[in-house]
Amino acid sequence: MHNNGLRLGLDIGTNSIGWCLLELRDGQPSGIRDMGVRIFSDSRDPKSKSSLATGRRMARLMRRRRDRFLARRKSLLYFLKTKGLLPENPAERDAIFAQNPYQLRAKALDEMLSPAELGRVLFHLNQRRGFKSNRREETAKKEETDFQKEMAGLEKKLADSNCRTLGEFLWKRFENKEPVRARAGQELYPTRKMYLEEFEKIVEKQAPFHPTLTTKDWEHVWHIIFYQRPLKAQEAGPCQINYEHKPGRTPRALPSYQKFLIAQELANLIVTLPDKQKRPLTKDEKKELWEILNSGKHKTGGFKSVRKWIGLPEGTTFNLESETREKLAANETAYVMTDEKYFGEGWHKFSDEQQNKIVDFFWNEENELKIAERATHEWGLSSEQATHFSRIPLKDLPKGYGRFCADCAGKLAKLMMEEGTFYKQAYDKLVGDEDQPDLKDRLEYYGKCLPEAVWVKPRKGVKCMEEERAGKIGNPTVHVALNQLRKVINCLLDRYGHPSEMVIELARDIKMSYEQKKRLEKNNNENKKRRGSAREKLQEQGVDPNDDNIKKYLLWEELNQKDCNDRKCPYSGRQISFSLLFSHEINIEHILPFSRTLDDSLANKTIAFRNTNNDKGNRSPSEAFLSNPAYNYAEILAKADDLPSNKKWRFTENAMERFEGENDFLARHLNDTAYLSKIARKYLQSVCTKVDTTPGRLTAWLRRHWGLNSILNKENVKTRDDHRHHAVDAFVVAMTDRKILNNASKSQDKNDNRFHVAEPWLEFRNEVTKKISSITVSHRPKHYPTGRFFKETAYGIVDPQKNEGYNLVTSKPIDQFKKNQVKSVRDKKLRFLMLEKIKGLEDEKAVTKALAEFGNEHKIRKVRFLEENKSARSVHHPKRNPKHEKKMAPDEVLCIRFWKMPDGSIEAKPTYLIDAYQKIKSRPHPNAKLMYAIFKGDTIRLIHKGAEKTVQVKILSVAGRQILFAQHNDSTEKKDNTSFSEALIKKTKFRKIHVDPLGKVKDAGFIYD
């Protein structure tokens, strides 16, 4: 079964697998059998870099929200008509709806409303009903705090206005010709509480005037308008030990898991005495620390305090102690629960099991009233204590989920404390001795080999795919990569048999040198001192030194290091004083948008006025302000020059291009890769007994040392422009054995830059070069109909004969028009004025600026314009009872099918995703024969610029009747193109070829005759 003369090296990334199969002689590499590269999508949107599931999930949530709103409205309308509060006749009802609802809501507090007026008020409350928060909102991301500030601002305005209800407040604003609808920056976002209070006051006043409405009727109205279903509980993954049983992983806040974390640290703690002798904690020392850290009196255990608690002499140090770590973990949950506002010392009267049940109920229950009721009746808290307890923000407790269930965490803690074992020993003892599983002939679906890593969600009553039966990993990038790894490995096993060894690269560095550690600690200490200094200054000024305020202060200092009285918003140039800094007017702002860069570091942040931040939106500074007449982009660049060098380049015009060029592997990808490498090693052990890992830093060092970077680049510098660099990495990974690891590690400890690793065999570099040059990169094609069926724009339908041949109409902001689009503006008078405004302008930026000015002058935000699109499809709404029709343009093309017609000619026809999903087959002629279909990601061969090339299809352009492609090994964004006309097919000998996961090519040659 095993081929003891082969070693497989794997460089596994989030969207690539490089592999190299080495021949071994006496256990040492002696030659290259084969190597290759597999490229695939990482299951993320290529533009936003977010998961492809994100857009679908957000659209689904919007549809559900809309459906629930419509259901509420329909139910309320039926009830109001049944009770005579609204007329059955639609015309009469429209007349009532024409009345000002704000005026009626204010009137309802003092006077009797007619039944129809009361119905109008209740209907309007349902249309809005406000935002309802929940306890989990306390852990919301910073991007949501602006919304919370808007609601807080409205609450303050409402209190200062002496108005009894929100409706009365809005009616006064309406009378004063002030805005009443919620818009960013106007502090008009209402809460559900405001509407509930207004509803109660209206009921109190109007109920006596309408005796036909019973108490049950009012309760029914309340239920229709204000009932909100509880949030779906977050599902935790399976316990890594008892993964087949429920419950799964426990919240980290559970006392049993907090105790496990403390036990783990105490088991790992090594004491270094002043005489340099090292020893673990004694049993008594461990017991004493255990009791102190679990007492709830300390949120953390500082190492200075730890020395005093167990009576160690001055000069004693711990292995976990460093300049960047000064504390041991303590029981954070006990620290919160022993507060006198909640349980106090009574918390320790509960058993471990009871404590777990209390925290588990609190963690999962959304209703504060239910929490308070149970705390009073079952746990002995006073009414005041129970109310305080029910309102503990979840952010005060440890976040997230652990790796084990509560039962396993408790058992592990007990083994480590009572038997003095390390974590691994306790884990092995709890799991028990497992026999080495039999090696399999082929690599199975990872869900079968790694059941502890997946969520099992089989569908009932239908035939399921393998991943639905066995479950899958929640991370979509890792899921795709493991499936592609299975394809590559199984092809290798079929072709070459089982290798005796496998080596994979881990996404982590080997041990740093002493000097590198010192530099890292120095940088961390400098940052720590800056934060400490900021905290002291804020405390002196009476400002809460929380994390947000400290960040604001540090970013404020950067605006002008020398003069604190001259610190201005980098975009608007307005002065930001210390007193203004911590108001709602100032935001912490991502310079390059976080949603597009995933860069949440301070290097990508500054502070700005809230309204300026709203104007900037989800754009870079140049995208937002270069063509905005309200801002001076030149002055913005001048102010950016005073910022640190790691920030000022982000304000330039090419900032986004530079970021995308320099950050091919963002922190997101690094995290994905680290997890992927760890789980891939365990996965591969089902087909190979010896699977080793090597750190990426060693791979990079050896690649430079042996001069392998110059194979794909003129200089000995790694290039990522060629996909084949993954195969070079895989070769180095395969060459890495324990001897090289040990020598490299020792060399780095000594900081010896003269250390050399001997070349593996004579002329090995020429062999690598020859193998690399023969590689055809294997790309995973997109042969399945997934993606967006239609573009987002919905078109109105117009008569082409009356609209200059155009058949569709839509609208868009006036400052987004291109020069050639102005000619299709539907309103002829407006079209003439816009053309006059841009007359003589050639530059598109100048056109945009001129149209923005025109829109501001005439208070025009959006303009309707005409389009012609014969491929647009009709969509009827609502679906069950169609009343309205609109047109939607098909978005993505699944493939181009090439047909050989009866007369011998070739015709190419596109198949849109919507056609494939609806299984619409379009044959140009009954006797036409399908030659081949070209999908995105397919590999084709053609004669281009006088040479035969193997290329990968990047884009299928139906409008331009072109296929855009790139060299199979090219990882840049450069693209060439060819038309799919019959003449070009003959001239270029254009044809589709098959490339298997190993890069082996099947080419039938040019089939046109």
Low-confidence parts: 136-144, 507-517, 661-673, 744-755
The largest pleated sheet is described as:
6 strands, mixed
Number of helices: 38
Mean pLDDT: 83
Strand order of the largest sheet: 12-9-1-2-3-13
State the share of residues found in helices, binned by percent. 40-55%
Give me the Rg, rounded. Answer: 34 Å
Structural class: alpha+beta
**Termini distance?**
47 Å
> How many distinct beta strands?
27
Apparent shape: globular
Strand fraction: 15-25%
Overview of the structural elements:
- Residues 136-144, 507-517, 661-673 and 744-755 have low confidence and may be disordered.
- The protein has 38 helices and 27 strands.
- The strands form seven sheets. The chain has a six-stranded mixed β-sheet with strand order 12-9-1-2-3-13, with helices on both faces. Strands 25-24-23-22-26-27 form a six-stranded antiparallel β-sheet, with helices on one face. Strands 16-15-14-18-17 form a five-stranded antiparallel β-sheet, with no helix packed on it.
- The chain is an alpha+beta fold and 1009 residues long.
- Helices cover 41% and strands 16% of the residues.
- α3 crosses α6, α9 (255-268) packs antiparallel against α10 and α14 (368-377) runs antiparallel to α15 (383-390).
